[in-house]
Amino acid sequence: MPNKKKPKKPRRDFPLFWHQGGQWCKKIRGKFYYFGTDPEQAEAKYKREENHLRAGRTTNRTHGPDLTVRAMVNLYLTSMKNRLDVGQLSARSFRDYFSASESLVEFFGDDRVMDLRPENFERYQAKLAKTLNPVSLGNATLRARIIFNWALKNDYIERPPRFGTSFQMPSAKVKRRAKRESGKRTFDAPELRKIIASAGQPLRAMILLALNGGLGQTDLAAIPLRAIDFKSSLINFPRVKTETDRRFFLWPETVKAAQEAIKIRPDPKDRKHDGLAFLTIQGRPWVRHLAGEGRRIVFTDAVAQEFNKILRKLKLKRRGSFYNLRHCFRTVADAVKDAPAVDAIMGHVDPSMGANYVSEIGDERLRAVTDHVRAWLWPNSKATARRKKVK
């Protein structure tokens, strides 16, 4: 925020003047240069840079003790935008880091990175905590730390940021208490049956795929027609987030719904989306991003938007979101006690040593998992009878 009260020069021969933008300033070769709010530091900085500026040479303000939070954030976003353009970063992740960067600039502005102390980070986190739950606060804190540590690893600052001991992610205890106080945030089988019955196509097919194999919105928006083998009732499609292989067998209900949805699929707005299994009524991907002003990314998740309409209609909005369907699948599937098979279906990376010796999960194990979830969702289905027979 600009300083509304114009300070007096510390002495008559002080070489800088106070700019209405809130910093000591000097006009050199027709251009304004700003040197900060502290008169002593501003003068010292001006003297270090004066000869370069008058000779028309730009000084390097993007490294060392003079680097501001605003400048650091701009450098970070430029790097992340480059990663986004070459496919090394998802649009959703870029959007999250952009939001974190905006928050840092709004709070710290042109403060020098090396001047920040633990109490500054404590105040920043306290501000975030006023509007964020513990999980969101943890994510925001983590992203802020990532940005500052990125500046250190890339030699933009000379020493680690002084975060102190308080600028940490909320503890597991705090998260558990917040989760308990917020109430149940998942769906039971009767609620899911109501949701499925209320959904039109292609949303119904996407809901069933999420319950059948734990697919999230980004997966559903990106899944190609060729990945769905209707003859074998099988999906073989890597998880978009991690490119981890995943495969699972489809329920008869899922096959039927997917075929119905694909049959009425509109023509794509852009030919590059012609191979996608699901498109909106406008012929666009269900999850997409567009370039906004500057480096801002406008992110659209039409799957979540349409799903939330059903939740509001059924008065189930507080019970969760579309991504909770993935959580539902995992929770129910874990009862099979075959974690490697569940991971293979969900596209999770198994970090254990045992994963190096498991080359392939057998079809019977994959079927056992999806049959169990189907029997939970429809207790009177044929899957239930088949499971009892196998046992």
How would you portray this structure in words?
This protein has 391 residues and is mainly alpha-helical. The chain has three domains: 1-59, Double Stranded RNA Binding Domain (2-Layer Sandwich), CATH 3.30.160; 69-182, DNA polymerase, domain 1 (Orthogonal Bundle); 189-390, hpI Integrase, Chain A. It contains 15 helices and eight strands. Residues 353-358 have low confidence and may be disordered.
How is the topology of this model organized?
Elements: E1 17-19, E2 23-28, E3 31-34, H1 39-54, H2 69-85, H3 91-108, H4 118-129, H5 134-153, H6 172-182, H7 189-198, H8 203-213, H9 217-222, E4 228-229, E5 234-236, E6 247-249, H10 252-263, E7 287-291, E8 297-301, H11 302-313, H12 324-333, H13 339-346, H14 363-377, H15 382-390
Antiparallel strand pairs: 1-2, 2-3, 4-5, 5-6, 7-8
Helix pairs in contact: 2-3, 2-5, 3-5, 8-10, 8-12, 14-15
Annotation keywords:
391 residues, Double Stranded RNA Binding Domain, DNA polymerase, domain 1, hpI Integrase, Chain A, 3 domains, 3-stranded antiparallel sheet, 15 helices, 8% strand
Give the CATH superfamily of the largest domain.
Intergrase catalytic core
**How many helices does DSSP assign?**
15
Helix and strand sequence: EEEHHHHHHHHHEEEHEEHHHHH
- Broad CATH class of the largest domain: Mainly Alpha
Strand order of the largest sheet: 1-2-3
Largest sheet: 3 strands, antiparallel
The CATH topology of the largest domain is what? hpI Integrase, Chain A
Report helical residue fraction: 40-55%
Alpha-beta content class: mainly alpha
Proportion in β-strands? 5-15%
Domain count, please report it.
Answer: 3
The whole-angstrom Rg is 27 Å
Which architecture name of the largest domain does CATH use? Answer: Orthogonal Bundle
The dominant shape is elongated
Give the beta-strand count: 8
